[in-house]
Amino acid sequence: MPARLKQQGYLIYPNPSRNTFILQQYKSESAANLKGVSVYNSSGQLVWSKSYNGDASQYTYITLGNLAAGIYTVHITFKDYSTSEQIIKIN
Predict the structure, then answer these.
(1) Which residue among 5, 21, 41, 90 has its CA within the 20 to 30 Å range from the CA of 65?
(2) CB-side neighbour CA atoms (13 Å) of 36
């Protein structure tokens, strides 16, 4: 298990990726606290999102296959806090 997954409670991989990124949560209890995931392009436009109501899986698949290569920001909202990560999509 990657140390970063255990430390942060989640991990987004592979980064960079061609099409699909995975948001993996360390424990299923963390998944229950996930409220939503949103992905924004470099212009700040929302390009992908999913909301949850205590029903998130430990693995969330984010598919950006139809979008241009570039840097995207993933905004993750949990019950108690929010965080953001950058991901790189390649062609």
Answers:
(1) 5
(2) 8
Instruction: Mention every residue, 6+ apart, whose C-beta is less than 8 A from residue 69.
Output: 89, 90, 91
Number of H helices, E strands in the chain: 2, 7
pTM for this model (two decimals): 0.91
Sequence letter at residue 45: Q
| Chain segment 41-90, per-residue pLDDT in tens | 999 999 999 999 989 999 999 999 999 999 999 999 999 999 999 999 99
Residues 6+ apart with CB under 8 A from 20: 61, 62, 63, 64, 65
Q: Determine the structural domain holding residue 44 and report its residue range.
A: 3-89
Q: How far apart are alpha carbons 69 and 18 in whole angstroms? A: 8
